[in-house]
């Protein structure tokens, strides 16, 4: 469950009603702006579909066979690339954070590559991978990798060295120190990196699908634009938002399981 959904459920009836009313007001304003083709000069709603049109388009998509194909393609790509990025990113972050030699060897090339937007990797990915599927998974991997690496390094470096020294003085092995001291201490930062990486994964995947995909939510959204099915564009955007929200909810559950002391601290406040 997301932070917004949790706060809505835990809020009192008055606050929950106010929040629902706020969303309803936004939908009414959107419908009015679309129906009356409001033109504000810099922004115009002349061609923007209203919520009623978008709802009709969403129902039509749900009844068609295309929805499962697009959802399946996007979910398989994003989770494949993200899972690889999580494994590689956490391993690199732990190595860099715990070893000065690893930091000197691994961190400079990562810092050179990190500022390059994942979108800029798309032409090279197309050349590197024989299939468009592999190139899109790679773009998703690149998008998630650097936030995970950097947050893992930060988490490892913030572990209290006195805890490590105490464990070492008690005869703990390097692996035991990593498992019992470093990983629990760095877990909050790692979870933060995983959450940021999930967001960038979706951003990069949707962009890659718009450019080289044949199926997927990004491809569906771009195809709707080229065919001038404007209501379908908004449906695609909402699907992207819902998928991202669902992914964040899964990560939140996993993060609470990995760091139960943080969850207890939130509940105590």
Automatic annotation (TrEMBL):
Principal cellular location given in the protein's record: membrane
Family matches, as InterPro entries: MetI-like, MetI-like_sf
Spans traversing the lipid bilayer: 79-97, 135-153, 233-254
Subcellular location: Cell membrane
Membrane topology: Multi-pass membrane protein
Keywords: Cell membrane, Membrane, Transmembrane, Transmembrane helix, Transport
CDD domains associated with the record: TM_PBP2
Domain (ABC transmembrane type-1) ranges: 71-251
Top-level taxonomic group: Bacteria
Entry's family note: Belongs to the binding-protein-dependent transport system permease family.
Name of the molecule in the record: ABC transporter permease
Lineage: Bacteria, Pseudomonadati, Pseudomonadota, Alphaproteobacteria, Hyphomicrobiales
């Amino acid at each position: 469950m997301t932070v917004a959904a949790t706060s809505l459920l835990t809020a009192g009836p008055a606050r929950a009603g106010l929040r629902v009313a706020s969303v309803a007001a936004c939908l009414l304003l959107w419908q009015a702006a679309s129906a009356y083709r409001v033109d504000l000069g810099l922004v115009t709603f002349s061609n923007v579909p209203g919520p009623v049109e978008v709802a009709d388009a969403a129902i039509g998509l749900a009844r068609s066979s295309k929805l499962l194909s697009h959802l399946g393609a996007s979910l398989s790509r994003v989770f494949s690339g993200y899972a690889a990025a999580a494994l590689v990113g956490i391993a690199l972050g732990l190595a860099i954070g715990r070893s000065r030699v690893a930091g000197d060897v691994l961190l400079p090339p990562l810092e050179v590559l990190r500022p390059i937007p994942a979108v800029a990797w798309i032409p090279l990915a197309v050349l590197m991978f024989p299939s468009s599927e592999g190139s899109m998974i790679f773009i998703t991997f690149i998008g998630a990798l650097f936030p995970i690496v950097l947050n893992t390094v930060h988490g490892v470096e913030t572990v209290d060295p006195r805890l490590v020294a105490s464990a070492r003085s008690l005869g703990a092995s390097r692996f035991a120190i990593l498992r019992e001291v470093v990983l629990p201490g760095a877990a909050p930062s790692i979870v933060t990196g995983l959450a940021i990486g999930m967001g960038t994964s979706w951003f990069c995947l949707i962009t890659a699908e718009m450019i080289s995909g044949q199926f997927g939510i990004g491809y569906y959204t771009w195809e709707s634009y080229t065919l001038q099915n404007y209501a379908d564009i908004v449906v695609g955007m909402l699907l992207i938002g819902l998928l991202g929200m669902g992914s964040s909810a899964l990560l939140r559950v996993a993060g609470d399981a990995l760091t139960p002391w943080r969850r207890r601290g939130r509940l105590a406040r």
